From TrEMBL:
<feature type="binding site">
    <location>
        <position position="87"/>
    </location>
    <ligand>
        <name>pyridoxal 5'-phosphate</name>
    </ligand>
</feature>
<comment type="subunit">
    <text>Homodimer.</text>
</comment>
<dbReference type="Pfam" id="PF22580">
    <property type="entry name" value="KYNU_C"/>
</dbReference>
<comment type="pathway">
    <text>Cofactor biosynthesis; NAD(+) biosynthesis; quinolinate from L-kynurenine: step 2/3.</text>
</comment>
<feature type="binding site">
    <location>
        <begin position="114"/>
        <end position="117"/>
    </location>
    <ligand>
        <name>pyridoxal 5'-phosphate</name>
    </ligand>
</feature>
<dbReference type="InterPro" id="IPR010111">
    <property type="entry name" value="Kynureninase"/>
</dbReference>
<keyword id="KW-0662">Pyridine nucleotide biosynthesis</keyword>
<feature type="binding site">
    <location>
        <position position="264"/>
    </location>
    <ligand>
        <name>pyridoxal 5'-phosphate</name>
    </ligand>
</feature>
<keyword id="KW-0663">Pyridoxal phosphate</keyword>
<comment type="pathway">
    <text>Amino-acid degradation; L-kynurenine degradation; L-alanine and anthranilate from L-kynurenine: step 1/1.</text>
</comment>
<feature type="binding site">
    <location>
        <position position="238"/>
    </location>
    <ligand>
        <name>pyridoxal 5'-phosphate</name>
    </ligand>
</feature>
<dbReference type="InterPro" id="IPR015422">
    <property type="entry name" value="PyrdxlP-dep_Trfase_small"/>
</dbReference>
<comment type="similarity">
    <text>Belongs to the kynureninase family.</text>
</comment>
<keyword id="KW-0378">Hydrolase</keyword>
<comment type="function">
    <text>Catalyzes the cleavage of L-kynurenine (L-Kyn) and L-3-hydroxykynurenine (L-3OHKyn) into anthranilic acid (AA) and 3-hydroxyanthranilic acid (3-OHAA), respectively.</text>
</comment>
<feature type="binding site">
    <location>
        <position position="208"/>
    </location>
    <ligand>
        <name>pyridoxal 5'-phosphate</name>
    </ligand>
</feature>
<feature type="binding site">
    <location>
        <position position="86"/>
    </location>
    <ligand>
        <name>pyridoxal 5'-phosphate</name>
    </ligand>
</feature>
Length: 396
């Protein structure tokens, strides 16, 4: 049965008068999330106290929620676990992959990667006497060589929406004896990811963007089952121990993906995320991808027909981009502030990028048409050129 996107839209609280095109930065609140969090606090935390770890299943929650995400990224049951932040999961995945290739020093990434991933890899490289090598996104394939230990790539570029070919790059890395780590921050819940089908080795991602888990929602990590018993991350935490409550002085890794747990899971945040994942139960990922392409293609066509002052900053071919579209304007920050003031919420990325994320679960073609009309009006009448629209806030 085709996915009913009218029904999925009803599952979200979308403020009156707002066209929300920033789900690639923070998803809106699912209507059921507040009740689920309240129930957790009043029925579980308040009444069960510490016994909630067993009675309410808090301890096993990272795996149960991970299984719900697994289907959305082409992974299998028991292969995904939740917890900690995305930066920590990047560190775990890259360090584990590097340790599996001890005779190699190079970690390869690209300049379109999210800076935080590069910061993590740079710090790890200094700690383990490795080299972080960064090339332009279009040069990644040619830069894969026999000295490569780890290919660390964010599948969808956070600024341009450019989508790497996961299968082709993974296959080439494997031919040269390297392992792959894929960051799915702008992929999970936005495009049709197939980790097992592509033969990837490790993957990580956040849940507060297209998965709508809320600000600060926990990250996830996946390990290919062929490597799960070999992977040994540097960051060894209590919850990743084979027997945490034996309180051994020496670390023994838990079986499989459980060893990728680190600290105490964020139980309240995971209750909100679990509510957000309910909407995905009736979503076909092929339908999601088709709708994403319809929305982004319509937006590009509308903007280019009505807004000659901006320049497309995303791939024109939909097969080469995720579910976001970026345009460039010399005063991009001020233009975006003017849009937000008119109820069309996207975001800005330095130095001059207007970024619009299209979330198929709740965005429709009416949103596209309205956003195009407002952007065209702002540019034609230069209403963006107000002093207050040029004053940058702490979060841009």
């Amino acid at each position: 049965m085709p996915t009913d996107f009218t029904n999925t839209r009803r599952a979200f609280h979308l403020p009156e008068g707002v066209t929300y095109l920033d789900g690639n930065s923070l998803g809106p609140m699912p209507r059921d999330a507040a009740r689920r969090v309240a129930d957790m606090m009043t029925d579980e935390w308040s009444q069960m106290l510490i016994t909630g770890w067993n009675k309410a299943g808090w301890y096993v929650q990272p795996r149960k929620v991970g299984d719900r995400i697994a289907r959305l990224i082409g992974a299998g049951p028991g292969q995904v676990v939740m917890g900690d932040t995305l930066s920590i999961k990047v560190f775990q995945a890259v360090s584990a992959a590097r340790a599996l290739r001890p005779d190699r020093r190079v970690i390869l990434s690209d300049s379109g990667n999210f800076p935080s991933d590069l910061y993590v890899a740079e710090g790890l490289a200094k700690a383990v006497d490795a080299e972080l090598r960064v090339v332009a996104p279009e040069q990644v394939a040619d830069a894969i060589s026999d000295d490569l230990a780890v290919l660390m790539i964010t599948e969808v570029d956070y600024r341009t929406g450019r989508r790497h070919d996961m299968k082709a790059l993974t296959e080439k890395a494997h031919r040269h004896g390297a392992l792959t780590v894929w960051d799915l921050a702008h992929s999970a819940g936005a495009v049709d990811v197939d980790l097992l089908g592509c033969g990837a080795d490790f993957a990580v991602g956040c849940t507060y963007k297209y998965l709508n888990g809320g600000p600060g929602a926990p990250a996830f990590i996946w390990t290919n089952p062929d490597l799960a018993e070999q992977a040994q991350p540097i960051l060894q935490g209590w919850m990743g121990h084979a027997a945490p409550f034996a309180f051994d002085m020496e670390y023994r890794p838990a079986a499989g993906i459980e060893r990728m747990r680190v600290g105490t899971p964020p139980v309240i945040a995971m209750a909100a995320l679990d509510a957000a994942l309910d909407v995905w139960d009736d979503v076909d990922m092929a339908d999601l991808r088709a709708r994403s392409i319809d929305l982004t293609q319509a937006f590009i066509a509308g903007v280019e027909a009505n807004c000659p002052e901006v320049t497309l900053n995303s791939p024109r071919d939909p097969s080469q981009r995720g579910s976001q579209v970026s345009f460039r304007h010399p005063d991009g920050y001020a233009v975006m502030q003017a849009l937000i003031a008119r109820g069309v919420i996207g975001d800005f990325r330095a130095p001059d990028v207007l970024r619009f994320g299209f979330a198929p679960l709740y965005n429709d073609l009416d949103d596209v048409a309205h956003a195009v009309d407002i952007l065209a009006d702002i540019l034609a009448n230069r209403t963006w050129n107000r002093p207050d629209f040029h004053q940058k806030a702490a979060v841009t």
